[in-house]
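Figure 6 in text form: structure in, sequence out.
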């Protein structure tokens, strides 16, 4: 049944607003499949598009590769008029316009790279309403001669891309962006959508203020890019480590970011001497040289670019498979944006950051040379990056906490998770620190908090009366350096946040409320020496680099499809990734479609691209099947999406392994309960039952290792069990007796521990 028909049936029961919402949602989804080849929106995209449809000003903070552009491109092709997009770089405009034209969208751009004649023609198309999208620079938009053109055109919306450029608090401030505030003055009824990949709280507010937005709706997408492997290595023997790293990524596109032009050039020369396809890029090159190098990289003619931060902002290349930071960037915003250039197609990508104290000192010198203006803020941001690089906590937890996100579990896709340091139960330590923050009402920075915990007699503490709070001096047993490390970890895990706009004072988060009032357990790592941390990092450097994918593809067929893509791209005069991203080719190499209908099921294949490219790609896939002796009927294997449940196994019952035996096999391989649950798609309680079966059969099972073991809690549970008359004892009375603070799964594990000890 179509949505339109369903709405007709339900019409008497729906409000006009609901009907409008469903109709616009259907319109947006139809455009998503037709032009972009996707069946579903990514998180928040649909809500953002609806906000634009509703005519509201909107601020979008969404990570690179998260799908920001779709948030204004879908309204552009479904609303009346032309969407005017402000973009800071010529290369970025060119990329976006080529991508739009490739999928059948009428798009163009105005900037200094085109002739006066071309500019006149495009302005005519804009005024005639024959364009869906028009990209312009901020200088062009604010120019006097373009104002009359704006007044003569029908504009559906204004989209401000890379919106952090408007804020002096942002990491790439562009003064010319400040002129964009005229948009709401001259066109108060046209919605403005401002988009950026990275912006802290101060910058987000500044974006809205500088653009004169009217009660803007803020959409803050998750900053998590789970396909990116995060790794930090000590900055010793960098060249040797790079050689080994690149050897594992042959024929893959990657970027090496360097602090100096000299390093860019010398690294590129050494890579070339190793027979690798590398070049360099920095601001000291002529404009023609930079454009030539950038075009070669975009078109897969160069695999490796050694570049300063001057490179990358205008790159929309989706198949960059790795990013290395030869030197530390200035702050986490820059770091996050630069690693975000890898894996934009959603496929696995690697990132590696070299850390050295020498880089820290050099960057501090640069900050001091900048003078007093914003120096304290820049220093604080550098401190947070240093904490990220030296932290013994899951890298993704640390990174996300900076942007105000709390990640409950370790990510499993960073060097710390690959080789985790020994952790301790830090709940009591956390409660000391968080309680102190609570009692001083968030008026202490890290240094002051440590001195309160250690019972310091400092003048500022005594004058503020902080010596009278309950937590004053409770942490005397720990050194100043120990407390600094623990507070850094609590910040990195999202239990504390630093208010950059309020003297860097520590504030509680929602997660910290759970520690204080719901007895949430906290894991901390004992402060390690610099040498120990470096040994951990060096050990992690030799761990396996490859990342698991949700599906397996035929590597030989994938290479043939890449070769075809490169040939077609050269013929069409466009970058290969605009034809199809690596993830689309990987799906083709896994699913092996041989008809147009099957081809349309591949992610990233819309109607226009199917019309243009299905003949060539299907011929390669069919020829491959014939060469391998695969019958047409056995070729196509539809991709299993996350929303589709896998079909049940066709294995005969006699050949099936008992489900509890499969659980035991995973347990014997050393997997945790959580890992087994993920692998098997079963509840933890079911897995505990499986393992209890084998314990009762005489097998030794270490249940204590499966829980944050607490002898006091075990004693309470045992007392509650002995109060029952039931045999075997029931969990519900125990759950109630513990004030519902301990989960049933945890109680079941404690029951298992008591059973293995013969105490119940």
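Output sequence:
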């Amino acid at each position: 049944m179509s949505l339109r028909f369903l709405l007709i049936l339900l019409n008497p029961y729906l409000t006009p607003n609901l009907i409008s919402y469903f109709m616009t949602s259907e319109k947006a989804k139809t455009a998503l499949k037709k032009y972009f080849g996707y069946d579903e929106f990514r998180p928040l995209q649909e809500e953002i598009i609806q906000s634009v449809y509703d005519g509201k000003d909107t601020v979008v903070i969404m990570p690179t590769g998260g799908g920001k552009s779709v948030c204004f491109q879908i309204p552009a092709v479904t609303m009346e008029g032309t969407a005017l997009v402000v973009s800071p770089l010529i290369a970025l405009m060119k990329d976006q316009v080529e991508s739009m034209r490739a999928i059948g969208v009428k798009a163009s751009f105005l900037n200094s790279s085109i002739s006066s004649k071309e500019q006149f023609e495009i302005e005519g198309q804009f005024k005639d309403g024959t364009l869906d999208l028009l990209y312009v620079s901020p200088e062009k938009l604010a120019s006097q001669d373009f104002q009359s053109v704006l007044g003569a055109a029908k504009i559906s919306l204004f989209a401000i891309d890379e919106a952090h450029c408007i804020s002096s608090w942002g990491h790439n401030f562009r003064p010319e962006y400040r002129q964009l505030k005229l948009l709401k003055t001259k066109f108060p009824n046209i919605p403005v959508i401002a988009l950026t990949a990275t912006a802290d709280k101060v910058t987000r507010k500044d974006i809205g203020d500088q653009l004169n937005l009217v009660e803007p709706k803020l959409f803050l997408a998750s900053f998590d890019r789970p396909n990116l492997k995060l790794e930090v290595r000590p900055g010793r023997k960098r060249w040797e480590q790079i050689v080994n790293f690149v050897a594992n990524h042959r024929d893959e596109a990657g970027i090496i970011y360097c602090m100096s032009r000299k390093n860019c050039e010398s690294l590129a020369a050494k890579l070339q001497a190793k027979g690798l396809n590398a070049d360099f890029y920095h601001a000291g090159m002529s404009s023609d040289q930079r454009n030539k190098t950038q075009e070669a990289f975009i078109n897969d003619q160069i695999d490796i670019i050694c570049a300063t931060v001057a490179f990358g902002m205008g790159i929309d290349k989706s198949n960059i498979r790795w990013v290395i930071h030869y030197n530390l960037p200035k702050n986490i915003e820059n770091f996050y944006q630069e690693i975000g250039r890898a894996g934009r197609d959603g496929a696995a990508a690697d990132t590696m950051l070299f850390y050295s104290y020498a880089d820290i000192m050099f960057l501090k010198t640069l900050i001091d040379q900048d003078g007093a203006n914003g120096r304290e803020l820049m220093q604080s941001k550098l401190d947070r990056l240093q904490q990220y690089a030296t932290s013994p906590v899951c890298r993704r937890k640390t990174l996300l906490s900076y942007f105000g996100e709390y990640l409950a579990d370790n990510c499993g896709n960073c060097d710390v998770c690959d080789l985790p340091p020994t952790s301790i139960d830090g709940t009591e330590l956390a409660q000391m620190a968080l309680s102190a923050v609570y009692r001083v009402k968030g008026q202490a920075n890290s240094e002051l908090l440590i001195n309160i915990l250690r019972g310091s007699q400092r003048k500022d503490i005594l004058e503020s009366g902080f010596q009278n709070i309950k937590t004053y001096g409770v942490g005397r047993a720990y050194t100043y350096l120990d407390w600094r490390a623990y507070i850094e970890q609590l910040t990195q895990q999202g239990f504390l946040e630093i208010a950059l706009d309020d003297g860097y004072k520590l504030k509680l988060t929602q997660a910290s409320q759970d520690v204080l009032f719901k007895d949430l357990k906290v894991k901390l790592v004992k402060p390690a020496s610099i040498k120990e941390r470096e040994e951990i990092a060096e050990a992690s450097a030799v761990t396996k680099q490859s990342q698991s994918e949700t599906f397996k593809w035929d590597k030989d067929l994938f290479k043939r499809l890449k070769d075809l893509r490169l040939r077609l791209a050269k013929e069409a005069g466009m970058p290969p990734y605009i034809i199809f991203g690596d993830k689309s080719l990987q799906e083709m190499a896994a699913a092996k479609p041989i008809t147009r209908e099957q081809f349309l099921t591949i992610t990233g294949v819309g109607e226009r691209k199917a019309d243009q490219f299905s003949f060539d790609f299907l011929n390669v896939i069919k020829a491959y099947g014939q060469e391998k002796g695969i019958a047409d009927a056995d070729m196509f294997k539809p991709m299993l999406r996350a929303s589709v449940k896998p079909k049940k196994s066709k294995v005969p019952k006699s050949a099936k392994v008992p489900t509890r035996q499969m659980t035991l096999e995973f347990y014997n391989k050393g997997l945790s309960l959580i890992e087994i649950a993920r692998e098997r798609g079963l509840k933890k309680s079911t897995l505990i039952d499986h393992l209890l079966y084998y314990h009762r059969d005489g097998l030794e099972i270490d249940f204590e290792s499966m829980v944050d073991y607490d002898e006091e809690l075990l004693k309470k549970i045992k007392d509650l069990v002995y109060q029952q008359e039931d045999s075997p004892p029931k969990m519900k009375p125990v759950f109630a007796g513990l004030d519902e603070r301990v989960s049933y799964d945890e109680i079941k594990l404690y029951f298992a521990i008591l059973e293995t000890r013969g105490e119940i």
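Caption detail: The chain has a mean pLDDT of 84.
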